[in-house]
Each structure stands twice: as C-alpha cells, then as structure tokens.
Amino acid sequence: MPAARVVRLIAPCTAILAIAALAAITACSPHPATGPYAPGVDYRQPDTNEIETAHRLMAAGQYELAMNAFTRAALDDGMSTEILTGLGTANLGLGRLGQAEQMLRRAVKEAPDWPEAWNNLGVLLMERGKTAEATEVFRRAYALDNGESDAIRDNLRLALAKSENSVSIDVHNQDYKLVRRGSSEYLIRTTP
C-alpha cells in the first residue's frame, strides 16, 4: 500500500477520534453547555411555596396555571382564606364570574376582617355591573384597611364615580384588567 494512501486513511480516522474524544470530555464537564432544553430538576433545593408561585402566575396573567397552583397549595395547607381569594380572583381573570363570586363570598364569610378579600369581591361586583353593592364592599375594605392601601382607595373612588355618574358611564363598554398589587391585592385598571 502506498504511503500517501495510508496517510489519507489515518487523517480521517484521527479527525473522527478527535471529535469523539472532545465530545466525551465535554460531556464530563461540571458546567455543561446550555442547549435548547430546560435544565434538570435540582432535588437539593427546598420545595417552592405554591401560594407564592400562584401569585406570580396571577401577576403574569396565567390564570389557569395560577388556579392549578392554588389547588396544589390547598392540598398542602388546606382551604385558607388566601387560597379561596386567589381561586376567586383567578376565576375572575378567566371570566368565570359565577364561580369567582362563590369563592370570594366564601372567603369574606370565613375572614370578615381581611380587607384584600373584600377588595377582590368589590372588583368582581364591578365586573358584574353591581356598582352599588361594589361601593359598599369597597367602603368596608377601606375601613378594615384603615385607608392604608392605595389600591383599595382607588377602587372605592372608581366605584363612587361610577355610581354617581351611572348615566354617563357605561361599565360594559370598558375593558378592565386585573392587576396584582402587593400580597393578594388586585386593582381594576382600564386597558389602553
């Protein structure tokens, strides 16, 4: 066999072996290269708080996923007022007003001194066009909060303005957006 031909056969074999060795070394790296796939699960980390996860999903507008997270939290912690309020607010975000009202009324019944639950019930009532009842609910939330929450105060102002100007303001022609404020507080804002 001529020497030139042996060199040509050895060169491709050497290149293939070099690529294989490089791939093997890269696979053993403690910090693998990031690819198109999500990283694996780190089992050394503590479990996440499902309620906090649900609130983050609510802030991102992912109401269906937030409902799932609130449901998982209910399995761990029981059906607390915060979970009921969160489920009601997620249902409100999905447009399920009947289910949302049931959850929020149950939440204010179980914790009548929690202003956030009253505020969220007021948001729901505004969406349903029950401005008079929403005004009373916002007044109760504002009184329980001692006027400390800007969101509750703004919601009360909006409800009062709508009830005073009910002839000139058409509630059904305005689009509202549910926005998370603080811990479990939501504010009605018109979408631009």
TrEMBL record:
Cross-referenced InterPro entries: Endocytosis_PI4K-reg_protein, TPR-like_helical_dom_sf, TPR_rpt
Would the keyword Signal be found if you checked this record's keyword annotation? yes
Keywords, A to Z, come to:
Signal, TPR repeat
The signal peptide, as residue positions, is 1-23
| Superkingdom classification of source | Bacteria
The TPR repeat units are at 115-148
Biological function: Involved in endocytosis.
Would you identify the family this protein belongs to, as annotated?
A: Belongs to the YPP1 family.
* Designated name of the protein: Tetratricopeptide repeat-containing protein
Query: What is the species listed in this Swiss-Prot or TrEMBL entry?
Result: Pseudodonghicola xiamenensis
